[in-house]
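Throughout our pipeline, every protein is held as a single compact record rather than as scattered files. The remainder of this section carries one protein's record, kept here as part of the documentation.

===
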Amino acid sequence: MKNIYVGISGVGSYVPEKKVTNHDLSKIVDTSDEWIVGRTGIEERRIASDDMATSDLGTLAAKEALEDARVKPEDIDLIIVATVTADHAFPSTACIIQKNIGAMKAAAFDINVGCSGFVYGLSIGESFIKSGTYKKVLVIGAETLSRVVDWEDRNTCVLFGDGAGACVLEKCEEGSGILSSELGSDGTNGQVLSQPAGGSRLPASIETLEDRLHYIKMDGKEVFKFAVRVMEKASINALEKADLNLDDLDFLVPHQANMRIIDAAAKKLKLEKNRICVNLNKYGNMSSASIPIALDEAVKDNRIKNGDNILLVAFGAGLTWASMTIKWSRRR
């Protein structure tokens, strides 16, 4: 397994056309642009149209990634979709996307790791390729968080948006691609970020609807403390596993949850702002879609180039965390 190197050969993303600004939100909840920007760094977010589900967003991102990688859908062996807003409890969103893109040779499944999901998906896909089980893996992070946001709760509705990002994984040249990964979880604090109802614990009922338990519930202070602590730890661990130090790092692609969290992580890692990929102001928190969309934008803008060492790091519901180092190298 150590003799096989796995890298990202194609990237793609999709965000809905509809924009909801902070000024728009100030008309429906007690908030303001100044309050939101000062506490989060978010200025606007994208919201999916009523006729679009998570699989629709993921399909568009997947098609773009396949085209970028110059890979045909029928050559994909596995599809992994990271999402907390699946189209249905079952079938999986991955199976729906498989049908949509015509990747009928592929196995397909969803993973639910909150905002850490995309990096988890990359790590799982890498393992399948290194083991020789599969050759080409499509990893997608896709969310329609607007469907589970309580638009009467000003503490959460200002944070989230919809979108999807995707990557194609396959073998790459020796010494490049994914160098290390760090995955973790702490289930003892899962209650600080959850969607309480809709599962087997609290099935849908008149009571759960009246109590608004089908929406995102978050203890912002606890999540903030956890995020600042774990993003530094996970980042350092991933760099050490790859035998890299902070001076070797060219770009940080963090989960886009809150600008204060990103700034705190950057300070700990001694990174200048021009070495951090940020699009939080445009899209808000898109959970598992945040990192792949930020990565796609940085690649398309030629900020990330072959030979760059990049670090992906995220935290999410569970509570979970994930980080990964990659030496960027794509054949063109």
User: Anything to note?
Assistant: The chain has eleven helices and 13 strands. The radius of gyration is 19 Å. The chain has a mean pLDDT of 96.
